Amino acid sequence: MNRLDEARPQDLARPRAEAMAPVLRQATRDDLPGLWRVRYAVSENTLAPGRIADDEVIAQLETTGRGWVVEEGGEIVAFAIGDASGANVWALFVDPRAEGRGHGSRLHDTMVEWLWTHGLTTLWLTTGAHTKARGFYERRGWRCTAALPNGQVRLELTDAWA
In 29-149, where do the E strands start and end? Predict the structure, then answer.
């Protein structure tokens, strides 16, 4: 009998379960198809296809900011992009099929921590005034600083250590 014959069923399942565990990693330009799939899957803060060009996303990932993705089973299910030059959250989206698993929180915390390392003391973003996203950010300490004419609100987060 070899070692595999001695393995219990729960032991055999462990490597597969670990392979399916969510992975958080830095985003690259090769991730664009997955980013767009997630971005167009959301039902709030929607975006019409073609409104933002691939080149603009690549610039955010490689020049002015950094991005991160969460993968489940090799598929991108959430992403975030922080813009260090503009001190803002450029994007944070979770595929509706993957909501409630903590991906947004992991991405938020990773992105904000990275933005703080650039000496920024206040971050900003805009989102819909009556969205789940607004509540998500406000629960993490963001404060509404302006209601915008387009139905959006501006939220700001100040570094408590600055």
Answer: 65-72, 75-83, 88-94, 122-128, 143-147
Strand partners, 23: 71
Render pLDDT for 109-136 as a digit per residue (tens, 0 to 9): 999 999 999 999 999 999 999 999 999 9
Rounded Cα distance between 91 and 45, Å, is 10
Structural domains counted in the chain:
1
38 within 8 A of 93, measured Cβ to Cβ: yes
Those residues with Cβ within 8 angstroms of residue 4's Cβ, 6 or more apart along the chain or in another chain: 12
Q: What pTM did the predictor assign?
A: 0.85
Burial of 134 (0-12, 13-18, 19+ CB in 10 A): buried
List Cα–Cα distances, 13 to 4, 10, 18, 19, 147, in angstroms.
12, 5, 9, 10, 51
Q: Which domain holds residue 135?
A: 22-158
CATH classification at residue 73: 3.40.630.30
